[in-house]
Amino acid sequence: MAPKKNKLKKMLSPPAHAPPPVEANVDDDDLMDDLFAQLDSKDESVKQESATVLSEMNIDKVADKLESAPKKDSKARHKARQARKAAALAESYAPTDADADARLEREAKEEEEQIKKTCEELGLMIHEITPDGHCLFSAVADQLSLLGILPSAQATYATCRKAAADYIQSHPDDFLPFLPSDLGEDAAGAGEAGLMDRAGFERYCATMRNTAVWGGEPEVVALSRAYNVPIHVVQGGKPPVVVHDPSEQTRSAPGDKRIVYISYHRRLYGLGEHYNSLRPKTIMGSIKAAFQ
């Protein structure tokens, strides 16, 4: 018991000379458990100390590596989830700048107002999706169920994840130039351009299919083409609606009947970027939303 406490105490003590950042040792289960316990403490100073330790351990980069590993057993998947949770908690508990917080809060409010204004113009209302790594796929699944494209029993994030990953994997020439590379300009500290190689592409598809990694614009494009349906993304910036048509021959417009509507939030949620489903307004739905 003593060695574990000494290790934790050492990590929570400020060093005489700040060392370069090191990656977290997620194999040290006792240490990670103690850091989680510290984050759950009622003492705010203890929370901040643990958050600082986790940030210095580059826990977010560790989570990225664990989630992108091509082969993972159940223990490795658990560690990946723990690392991701630790990164999110560390960010939320870390000491913050009051002016920066006020600015972010203002930007989040402005974004929300812009999205709601566009939804009002389109006769839509936000249907909240659980803010996790599956949110894009859950939002699209909800829409596909409403349109009758997927039976309700199959309208899940897993179904949409597989559809997106399968489509991307079977159309490498359409997606490779737009995917983040493990090397080159997309890598941390890189100084030159680099394209994703075939092995990296296969890893990307497997990760997108089998983990809770966030989906983005490449997956929106893939889902639009896989289900042959336009996807309109309402956002707080300009343009207020980003249109993804399944082919160059398709030209959809807001108000068309067979369109998937989702909203993209950059700042509204604490865990980062988020997608919600946008359902048609109904009287009962409007009443329910007013009391939420």
What labels describe this entry?
292 residues, alpha+beta, 5-stranded mixed β-sheet, 52% helix, disordered N terminus, disordered C terminus
Summarize the structure.
The protein has helices at 2-12, 29-39, 44-56, 59-68, 74-93, 98-122, 135-146, 157-170, 172-175, 198-210, 217-226, 283-290, and strands spanning 124-127, 231-235, 241-244, 260-265, 274-280. By secondary structure, it is of the alpha+beta class. The chain starts with a helix and ends with a helix.
Structure write-up:
This protein is of the alpha+beta class. It is built from twelve helices and five strands. The longest helix is centred in the middle third of the chain and has 25 residues, at 98-122. The chain is globular. The protein starts with a helix and ends with a helix.
List the helices and strands and how they pair.
Blueprint: H1 2-12, H2 29-39, H3 44-56, H4 59-68, H5 74-93, H6 98-122, E1 124-127, H7 135-146, H8 157-170, H9 172-175, H10 198-210, H11 217-226, E2 231-235, E3 241-244, E4 260-265, E5 274-280, H12 283-290
Parallel strand pairs: 2-4
Antiparallel strand pairs: 1-5, 2-3, 4-5
Helix pairs in contact: 2-3, 3-5, 4-5, 7-8, 8-10, 8-11
Number of strand elements: 5
Number of helices: 12
Order of strands side by side in the largest beta sheet?
1-5-4-2-3
Q: Structural class, from helix and strand content?
A: alpha+beta
Q: Tell me the span between the first and last alpha carbons.
A: 47 Å
Q: State the helicity in percent bands.
A: 40-55%
Overall pLDDT, averaged? 77
Biggest beta-sheet profile: 5 strands, mixed
Can you tell me the overall shape? globular
Instruction: Give the H and E element order.
Output: HHHHHHEHHHHHEEEEH
Poorly predicted parts: 1-24, 184-192, 286-292
